[in-house]
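sorry for the late reply, my laptop died twice this morning and i had to redo everyting from scratch. anyway the thing you sent over, i finally got around to it. pasting the sequence first so we're on the same page, its 367 residues, then the predicted structure underneath. double check i copied it right bc i was rushing
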Amino acid sequence: MRLIICVIAAAIGLTGHWASAQTGGKAAAFWTSVQANCNATAAKPAGALGRNIAQAAIAEFDSFGGHKIDADGRLFHFGLTEAENGPENGRARAEASLGRLGWWQVMKYWRALYGNDIDKITDQLEVRAYRDASTSSDGAQTAARLPIDFGPLLRATQSVADPEMREALRETIIRSALIDTSWSAAFISYVIRQAGVTADKFQFANAHRVYIYDAVATSAAELALQSDAHIYRACPLGTTKPRVGDLICDQREPALADASDAAVRERIWSELSGSVSARTVRHTHCEVVAHIDASAHKMYTIGGNVLNGVAARKLNLRHGLTFSPVQKGHCGGAGAWTLPEPAADMPQMQGKCSLNDQKWFVLLQLR
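ok and here's the structure:
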């Protein structure tokens, strides 16, 4: 009996492996076919829309006063952050330009998604609170997350009679929620809307995965000779030349920490026919390709919610101007980090010394 069970288990295992291999083979063939479309478009100069998207990203980076990250992944200029609520350099002034308030800038991105309807915006924001954290002085205490609904919390300020106190409370609560809620996808949506793109051509969303999956679906529709109005297709990252206006995306799924960029793309393709709620590549981040320096083999991308602000980063390209896998910086030599590491139960640096060392896996190409 034990032998029979082992034989059956082995057969099931082989069948599962064969099915996985078959799926992987079809996915690889799909991306090989997609590459032809990507190459044909990449061979052409960027169009007016791509230039408009890139310029909108650069303008927003300048307006925000963003961070700058060099090609070795080092932060050499630290700009405005989402939490800032006062004039630069900390000088006390009677007035402040709203555009120099970090939280106000972030609220602008949410308005691009939901207009001035504060109820729709508050449905997307969250405030994180932990039981008794404001009164406890014990750092080792474990505190439970409090289930706070942001909308009622904001509406509670209406009961404050003094208008100045009411406004101060509203701004404090909104600023906290903007800090606690990821806004990088709202930033991308804002930039693309600023370039004149309409909702029938790009699904403005508060999660990058929405338009990543859309772009993969568009690539599939093209191969099937089906019409599709979306402006982005998904392309293999390391073999497609980026152009201004394209998006480059990374993934941060713990379960895919060791997966190749091809494996992540194949997983997304395999999940297109299933339920949206069952899609598993959920933690992602995208940035706009804002400038290509062909002679230096570099490209500049701009993204939001990077180091709590808007950042421009300089990334390495191969000699053929495709994305280089070498974005890790230089951890050793005279510049090695020699400060003693914390105890084993504390977070470790894990050898990373470049802010550009991310799990970049797909290029969303303007068609």
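The chain has two domains: 25-82+196-332+350-367, 97-131+144-182.
thats about all i looked at so far, will dig more tmrw
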